[in-house]
Amino acid sequence: MKLICIGRNYTDHIKELANDRPSDPVIFMKPDTSILLKKQPFFIPDFSSEIHHEVEVLVKINKIGKHIQEKFAHKYYDEIGLGIDFTARDLQQQLKEKGLPWEKAKSFDGAAVIGNFFKKNTFTNLKDLTFRLEKNGEIVQQASTALMLWKIDALIEYVSKYFTLKIGDVIFTGTPAGVGKVSPNDILKGFLEEEQAFSIKVK
Ligand code: ZN
């Protein structure tokens, strides 16, 4: 399976990193080895001194598809989840400045937290789904899918132009504002509406 990640999908986050607003979604991948194993802590890697949390809504693909039209995209998923796209911001900044790919900063072991998934009909409106990340009990990121530049179905259409989507693939739909550094002993908890999707300890 593959993890397809979307960058720069919320205006407020584009502003906080002083990035340009893209004309198309920014896409990168994480390998399956980047998935943080369930119930394991996240260990800060020694090659970075600035690991940021990016909380993101996840979409799990349940049907193989290519060139999926937006109007049919809803047939390709029935579960929605929440995760973290851990990012070595210091490394990413160096790579961006040189125009190099981001994999070292985004795709290292443990960089993908995949929390619990919920049947999509658990939620009344996927186009206005609220979610939040709490760090040590304080809300650090909070948003709604209504703020996405490209909504879930539009992302599926766009991504499937380039990559065949397979059963079990997961799309990370981008992070809203509020990204920030994590430190040893932090506890990160993610909520989709009021459903807790994960609780991670940082080491
Ligand atoms: Zn991200």
How would you describe this protein?
There is one protein chain. This protein is α+β, with helices and mostly antiparallel strands and 203 residues long. It has helices at residues 11-16, 89-98, 103-106, 152-162; strands spanning 3-7, 26-30, 51-53, 55-61, 77-85, 87-88, 112-119, 130-135, 138-144, 170-172, 180-181, 187-192, 195-201. The protein is 15% helix and 34% strand. It is globular and about 45 Å long. It has one domain (3-201): Alpha-Beta Complex (Fumarylacetoacetate hydrolase, domain 2). The site of zinc ion (ZN) has 8 residues, from strand 1.
Task: Give a quick set of tags describing it.
about 200 residues; alpha+beta; six-stranded mixed beta sheet; four-stranded antiparallel beta sheet; 13 strands; about 35% strand; globular; binds zinc ion
How would you concisely characterize the structure shown here?
With 203 residues, the chain is of the alpha+beta class.
Mean pLDDT: 96
Q: What would CATH call the architecture?
A: Alpha-Beta Complex
Percentage of β-strand residues: 25-35%
The total of beta strands comes to 13
What is the CATH top level name?
Answer: Alpha Beta
Could you name the ranges where pLDDT drops below 50 across 5 or more consecutive residues? none
In percent, how helical is the residue content? 10-25%
Would you give the CATH topology?
A: Fumarylacetoacetate hydrolase, domain 2
Strand order, largest beta sheet: 2-1-10-4-5-7
**What do we call the CATH homologous superfamily?**
Fumarylacetoacetase-like, C-terminal domain
The class by helix and strand makeup works out as alpha+beta
Number of helices: 4
What is the global morphology? globular
**From the alpha-carbon coordinates, what is the Rg to the nearest angstrom?**
16 Å
The total domain count is 1
